[in-house]
Amino acid sequence: MFIHIIGIVIVLVILLIASMFRVLREYERAVVFFLGRFYGVKGPGLIIIIPFIQQIVRVDLRTIVLDVPTQDLITRDNVSVKVNAVVYFRVLDPKMAINNVENYLEATSQLSQTTLRSVLGQHELDELLSEREELNRDLQLILDQHTDNWGIKIANVEIKHVDLDESMVRALAKQAEAERTRRAKVIHATGELEASAKLREAAEVLNKAPNAIQLRYMQTLTEVANERTTTIVFPMPVDLVDKITDPIKATLNEAAINKAMKVDD
């Protein structure tokens, strides 16, 4: 009987000694409490804990990916949308993360949900769709300020999806189509304006060189003649006709004068 008691005591002592040693990974820290009071932060590696007197709480220092559930919100222009996001954070101070908040993971999740609704509800729908980077920065700064007392650092916040109902999707499609039509008309009008300016410059050049317009007409006639057409109607300007007929008239007048002088002789 005495031998059994000694054996039990030895086993208990071995178990007690074994429970004194804990091994923490590189990304883990142990918040140690001594009779309920904060004692310190230990780790990583091998640490020694006094059983029944000291207790530890393990804290993971790696970046945690928190998926924020879909939130229903109304934008500033009274559009109902559903938005979800993802938050990346990590524990910087294990002491504050354990002592200042009951469950830092749940607290960060709830804070992310309420902040997402309050911040995005202050913006219009167009801003939610086109200015996501700026909204992500605003959410990250606000969450980081609130979690600073918990020893938590918000590394990044990303808005994942902005879901709209079908009627709003159709309205946005019509708006986009109208915008494309407007841009096409503006581009066409700009092209017409530039073309008219170039035509005016060309007209000024032709006015300075009268013979150039004759060459231009001859070139146009050549181009039209190469096409498969049987009849060509080509307008001739009056000044060009005059330039062609004036030398002929002058020649005829000179010949008539010479003839008359011969008759008188």
Automatic annotation (TrEMBL):
<dbReference type="GO" id="GO:0005886">
    <property type="term" value="C:plasma membrane"/>
</dbReference>
<keyword id="KW-0472">Membrane</keyword>
<dbReference type="InterPro" id="IPR001972">
    <property type="entry name" value="Stomatin_HflK_fam"/>
</dbReference>
<protein>
    <recommendedName>
        <fullName>Band 7 domain-containing protein</fullName>
    </recommendedName>
</protein>
<dbReference type="GO" id="GO:0098552">
    <property type="term" value="C:side of membrane"/>
</dbReference>
<keyword id="KW-0812">Transmembrane</keyword>
<dbReference type="InterPro" id="IPR043202">
    <property type="entry name" value="Band-7_stomatin-like"/>
</dbReference>
<dbReference type="InterPro" id="IPR001107">
    <property type="entry name" value="Band_7"/>
</dbReference>
<feature type="domain" description="Band 7">
    <location>
        <begin position="19"/>
        <end position="176"/>
    </location>
</feature>
<comment type="similarity">
    <text>Belongs to the band 7/mec-2 family.</text>
</comment>
<feature type="transmembrane region" description="Helical">
    <location>
        <begin position="31"/>
        <end position="53"/>
    </location>
</feature>
<dbReference type="InterPro" id="IPR036013">
    <property type="entry name" value="Band_7/SPFH_dom_sf"/>
</dbReference>
<feature type="transmembrane region" description="Helical">
    <location>
        <begin position="6"/>
        <end position="24"/>
    </location>
</feature>
<keyword id="KW-1133">Transmembrane helix</keyword>
<dbReference type="Pfam" id="PF01145">
    <property type="entry name" value="Band_7"/>
</dbReference>
